[in-house]
Specification:
The complex is a heterodimer of chains A (about 110) and B (about 110). By secondary structure, chain A is mainly β. In chain A, about 0% of the residues lie in helices and about 60% in strands. In chain A, strands 2, 4, 5, 9, 10 and 11 form a 6-stranded mixed β-sheet that branches. In chain A, strands 1-3-8-7-6 form a 5-stranded antiparallel β-sheet, with no helix packed on it. The N and C termini of chain B lie far apart (about 35 Å). The chains are: A mainly beta (about 110), B mainly beta (about 110).
């Protein structure tokens, strides 16, 4: 069984400030972890993924995430928020034979000018 | 060219009606999915097909019936629509490996009145 918990359904940051979106996972087998972004009225787009090659993963738009097995975490960060980063962010886990991806409940990021 | 396309984008219908949503992908992927996103943005997998074969069938009312005529198409037919079926339905595809990201369509917003 696998699950994902995203802490904070809403996060507000000032433009230029650090973005930190939290994700903790649970998996009975080594997981593959993903962050997706959803802009209004659109589908989800992949930001980055962890596949065990490196614990620090860089993605698009300046985002990165660090896999910490001891903490079962995969938090998403960006050093400086931009207005265009305002969106819904989803953490997801995939494990096991068939590719059954389980999503977290999402975090809405608001960027304040 | 749109990679994963869904039609229609919006669907407004009355309770008790039957409706279908179509999905096509031109990425050459073997696996396709239907996800339901509720008003709180929670994403739940409904079905997954691999090369036209059903591989994931979550606890979904049997009023929902997926059909995959070929590996590039996955349609969703819904009988006897209910108010609770109102949601955004997303189609997605992937190569099918456990570490493969999902590619999403832009969703179909279904409103049942």
């Amino acid at each position: 069984a696998q699950s994902v918990t995203q802490l904070g359904s809403h996060v507000s940051v000032s433009e230029g400030a650090l973005v930190l979106l939290r994700c903790n996972y649970s998996s009975s087998v080594p997981p593959y972890l993903f962050w997706y972004v959803q802009y209004p009225n659109q589908g989800l787009q992949l930001l980055l993924k962890y596949t065990s090659a490196a614990t620090l993963v860089k993605g698009i738009n300046g985002f990165e995430a660090e896999f910490k097995k001891s903490e079962t975490s995969f938090h998403l960060t960006k050093p400086s928020a931009h207005m265009s980063d305002a969106a819904e962010y989803f953490c997801a886990v995939s494990a096991g034979g068939y590719q059954k991806v389980t999503f977290g409940t999402g975090t809405k990021l608001q960027v304040i000018p | 060219d749109t990679a994963v396309s869904q039609t229609p984008k919006y669907l407004v219908t009355q309770m008790g009606n039957d409706k279908s949503i179509k999905c096509e992908q031109n990425l050459g992927h073997d696996t396709m999915y239907w996800y339901k996103q509720d008003s709180k943005k929670f994403l739940k997998i409904m079905f997954s097909y691999n090369n036209k074969e059903l591989i994931i069938n979550e606890t979904v009312p049997n009023r929902f019936s997926p059909k995959s005529p070929d590996k590039a198409h996955l349609n969703l037919h819904i009988n006897s629509l209910e108010l609770g079926d109102s949601a955004v339905y997303f189609c997605a595809s992937s190569p099918g490996q456990v570490d493969s990201p999902l590619h999403f369509g832009n969703g179909t917003r279904l409103t049942v009145t």
